[in-house]
């Protein structure tokens, strides 16, 4: 038995679903998932079926023979026009003959001979075969007075009688020139998110809107509309730390030293060309001086551009596994969560996820080994230098994500707690709005909320301890959060270390 998925497009009439189920049953298929919501789309049904491969082919053949199988997602054109009909018996019937021959689907009609325009019929059509539109219009123009009101092939004007076709056309903006088979599988995954969240009493239409917002925001904030908030922190003579807050997702940190440059996290893959241009403007454009990248965890907004750089990326073996898996919840107590799995596929696709290929793994040290040295609650799994700064790699507890690593320079008080400690008040409204989308679509960005609280509390305690020691030396502990500004901990609250400056790509294009 294998798992298969397909999309059925069935007539909106009694017995249609029963007929499809009979075909699946006849070939001994077991329906594992089905989702149909007439409020969204009255014709589309999503199926997942377990059966033998030969039986599945028979099921597809039967469904396609009776016109129930959705085999493509070709762009659908929307046409709205006014047509002036003679006021006589059979006028509408004659007009509809032309519409039927064009294989158009009528979505709106409006006519009243007692109205202000007694001969005007307002018509809206969805037409799957766009090549027939010109022929239809030529036929109508030869017989009737015609006024074109709207004509659209982008999917923007389609109404919800073809909701999923409309959604598919919008998704094409974010997945490139994908084949129909790929897009249909992706649409199946998006529907699975909607089904899961509908069971949690969330509006399915709102779910799809938020999915599109993710793709739209990433696309809209790249290229000439890319921007970043930048902090520059002098650590000591000859060493400067740059914090680049990208429009969406996690921060990029870059150490500029006399010998080399070292990056911590890379941001989304979609921003990589913009980041390279930005580095050029800050005098950091010579990528031959970039020698290493240190990855905190496997989320696309933290390691999704690593594969674009030729230098080695240092990371935990578990993090490497997650970049090869289909779910960010891999290795956690939440591993089987559909929301985590489908969100991972979606964000990796939208953000052009390109994980590290040149990899150096940190040593595999057992956290349970009594001989393992620790910093607070966290095992020290490696030590390394950036310039003359000594760093420790601390193994996280797996609250935000399994395999996560924190980086710490005790002497200078630099803590990189990834997404376990964030100065939310330093996030711009736009970044906050984007971050909320992930929370909505997964219900939580942490794969284990209980461990995430424990992890954050342990990190805060470590930061307080370090800060108390550094104050005696006239220094402060700098919290280099995964999102938001480099911050200080003041009376239990994170405050910005310095005001960031705004980088705007359009200024340099």
**Alpha-carbon Rg, integer:** 28 Å
Fraction of residues in H or I helices: 25-40%
Structural domains: how many: 4
The CATH superfamily label of the largest domain reads Ribonuclease Z/Hydroxyacylglutathione hydrolase-like
CATH architecture of the largest domain: 4-Layer Sandwich
Describe the structure.
With 509 residues, the chain is an alpha+beta fold. The chain has helices at residues 16-26, 53-65, 91-101, 133-141, 163-175, 180-198, 204-220, 272-281, 300-303, 317-324, 338-350, 429-442, 449-471, and strands at 2-9, 30-35, 44-51, 77-84, 104-110, 120-127, 145-152, 227-236, 239-245, 251-256, 261-264, 290-294, 313-315, 359-361, 374-375, 378-386, 389-395, 405-409, 414-416, 478-480, 486-490, 493-496, 501-504. It is built from 13 helices and 23 strands. An 8-stranded mixed sheet has the order 14-13-12-11-10-9-8-23. Strands 15-16-17-18-19-20-21-22 form an 8-stranded mixed sheet. A hairpin with an 8-residue loop joins strand 2 (30-35) and strand 3.
Could you name the key traits of this structure?
509 residues; alpha+beta; Alpha-Beta Plaits; 4 domains; eight-stranded mixed sheet; 13 helices; 23 strands
């Amino acid at each position: 038995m294998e798992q298969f998925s397909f999309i059925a497009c069935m007539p909106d009439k009694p017995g249609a679903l029963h007929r499809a189920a009979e075909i699946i049953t006849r070939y001994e298929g077991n329906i594992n998932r089905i989702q149909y919501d007439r409020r969204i789309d009255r014709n589309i049904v999503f199926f997942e079926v377990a059966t033998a491969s030969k039986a599945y082919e028979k099921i597809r053949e039967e469904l396609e023979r009776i016109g129930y199988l959705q085999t493509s997602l070709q762009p659908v054109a929307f046409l709205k026009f006014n047509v002036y009909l003679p006021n006589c018996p059979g006028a509408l019937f004659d007009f509809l003959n032309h519409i039927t021959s064009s294989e158009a689907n009528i979505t709106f009609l409006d006519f009243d001979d007692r109205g202000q325009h007694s001969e005007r019929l307002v018509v809206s059509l969805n037409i799957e075969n766009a090549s027939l539109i010109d022929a239809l219009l030529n036929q109508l123009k030869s017989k009737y007075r015609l006024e074109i009101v709207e004509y659209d092939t982008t999917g923007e004007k389609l109404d919800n009688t073809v909701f999923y076709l409309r959604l598919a056309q919008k998704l094409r903006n974010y997945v490139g020139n994908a084949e129909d088979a790929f897009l249909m599988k992706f649409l199946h995954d998006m529907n699975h998110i909607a089904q899961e969240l509908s069971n949690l009493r969330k509006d399915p239409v709102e779910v799809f809107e938020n999915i599109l917002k993710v793709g739209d925001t990433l696309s809209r904030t790249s290229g000439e509309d890319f921007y970043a908030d930048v902090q520059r922190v002098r650590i000591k003579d000859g060493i400067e730390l740059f914090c680049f807050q990208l429009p969406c997702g996690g921060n990029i940190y870059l150490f500029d030293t006399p010998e080399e440059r070292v990056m911590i996290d890379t941001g989304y893959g979609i921003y990589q060309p913009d980041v390279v241009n930005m580095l050029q403007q800050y005098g950091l454009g010579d990528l031959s001086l970039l020698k290493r990248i240190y990855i905190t965890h496997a989320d696309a907004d933290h390691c999704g551009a690593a594969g674009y750089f030729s230098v080695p990326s240092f990371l935990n073996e578990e993090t490497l596994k997650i970049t090869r898996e289909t779910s960010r919840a891999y290795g956690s107590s939440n591993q089987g969560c559909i929301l985590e799995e489908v969100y991972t596929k979606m964000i990796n696709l939208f953000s052009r996820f390109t994980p590290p290929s040149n990899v150096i793994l940190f040593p595999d040290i057992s956290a349970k080994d009594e001989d393992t040295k620790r910093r607070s609650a966290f095992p020290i799994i490696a030590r390394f230098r950036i310039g003359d700064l000594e760093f420790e790699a601390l193994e996280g507890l797996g609250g935000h994500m399994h395999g996560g690593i924190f980086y710490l320079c005790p002497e200078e008080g630099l803590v990189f707690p990834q997404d376990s400690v964030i100065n939310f008040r330093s996030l711009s409204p736009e970044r906050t709005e984007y971050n909320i989308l992930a929370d909505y679509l997964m219900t939580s960005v942490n794969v284990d909320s209980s461990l995430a609280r424990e992890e954050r509390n342990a990190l805060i305690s470590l930061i307080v301890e370090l800060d108390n020691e550094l104050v005696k030396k006239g220094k402060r502990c700098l919290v280099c959060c995964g999102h938001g500004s480099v911050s200080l901990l003041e009376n239990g609250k994170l405050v910005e270390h310095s005001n960031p400056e705004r980088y705007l790509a359009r200024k340099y294009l």
